[in-house]
TrEMBL record:
Record key words, sorted: Coiled coil, Cytoplasm, Metal-binding, Zinc, Zinc-finger
GO cellular component: cytoplasm; plasma membrane; synapse
Membership in a protein family: Belongs to the dystrophin family. Dystrobrevin subfamily.
Signal peptide start-end: none
Species assigned in the record: Anabas testudineus (Climbing perch)
Record's protein name: ZZ-type domain-containing protein
Biased composition range(s): Low complexity: 462-486
Stretches assigned to the ZZ-type domain: 244-300
Amino acid sequence: MVMEEGALSDRGRGAPATAGAEGRQILVALAEQNFDAFCLSTYRTACKLRFVQKRCNLHLIDIYNVIEAVRDAGLNAVELNAGISVTRLENLVSSLFNQLSKRLPTTHTINPRESTVLLVEFLLAAMDSEPDNRLTVLSVKAMLAILCGGKLVDKLRYVFSQVSDSKGALVQSQFDAFLREALRLPTAVHEGPSFGYTHTLARSCFTQQKRVMLNMFLDIVANPPECLVWLPLMHRMANVEHVYHPVSCSYCRSNGMTGFRYRCLRCRGYQLCQDCFWRGNTSGSHSSQHHMKEHSSWKSPATKLGRALGRTLGCVSSREPPHPIYPEEPERTLNLANLRILLPVKLLIFLLLCVSSVDSPSRQDEEHKLIARYTSRLAEADGAGVSRQEILAEIRRLRAEHDAACQPSPEKGSTNPTLLAELRLLRQRKDELEQRMSSLQESRRELMVQLEGLMKLLKAQAAGSSHASPSRPSPSASRSVGAASPQTHMYPPQDSLAGVGGDVQEAFAQGPRRNLRNDLLVAADSITNTVSSLVKELHSGTIKTHRTHTPP
């Protein structure tokens, strides 16, 4: 967007507001930042309010946290023009920062008490900056919604919900009251002459539309009215605080820029950092009257060329909507006036029927009395609706349906002998399979015991050979000894290997000596695979048997 802030720079700076002693602490810290050196009042105001926002830690709180705190404080059901005490304001702000301190990680801590004092002092100073310094619910909601963090679209949606009617249309009188409260903030930071409140502001914001709906109101994001031009700028500042541009400033010659970058549309290659542009610094043939383009990100020449080609070929949209499009009609809440009696009674009846089906008859009589007492209370609380006789009739009908459903029906064939016989066979087959499974598990356990004995024998054999030959023989000598006297090695008798897989028998068979440890591991794997295949076969046989005996 092309920045044309020249007209705003000459509107003047306001004199210090008559803030009380309560707001002097944060206003003194604000004066030390030397923001008055900025030539453009829009940037001056946005920088000051951004400083207040960060000093009070409000940038860590979004609009949804504010809405929740307002609801917990009971202010959502209070009229907007109702007054609010300072004590209630302190409790509201204190709850905001106490909840924030619980959400923050341990590496980032704040002082809730200090933040509460600073924010309350500033809000009271903002109220004292105008002749009408009555603190109302609308003033608290408006200033907290503007100063908190989060997305600007979400803030404006919340503001619109406060200044619109039940049909979703903007009410000019309520919007005028909102502007009066919102513009107290620029006045509190000494920018009243530039962005102070006048009675004609509300009509000048939306002059072309007779009926302003939500999406028209949200156009403030892209095309704000002159009195609120600092509000989107404050959010853009928050978004570019850590953006780096790898180019040097044409005035201060700094190596790289952080924040905004401004490029002259007339002077080729002339770029300024945000500090130089805001202070009106110029050099060479460049003039402060030249139009400058504000950049909030850095794009390499290759990226720019790619986007230009994409726009030319129609692959990339040249413009994105400034905000999502929302339905014009407000969301309707569910009317539960007609369900206030019937729904709780039926739910209670259902729960009591479920409980009474397993309780004693005396307990059922007590529950009937409770139901009758409950219905009588509802009938007394609301004269309109269902009478007591109708509710009791509904209870009797549901009780009859429940009893009928619990009684066995003779036509259902619950004593079918064919089904009983098949069920008996399936149970018998299940018992047989379980017995076979237990026998297989016992066999597997015995095999593992045998393998454990063989491993012990192997270890003993290795220990004996180490004592017999302390020095390691050469490979050729080992081969000659093994070939000459294979009978000298100890092997378990073949009867002890009965039922063990072939890999184990081969490991201890007569012949050349092999790696017995590896052979034992292979044998264990073979036994495990065999048992697994048997289990799968048994499982498939169970399924086939169940399908065979299942009646069509």
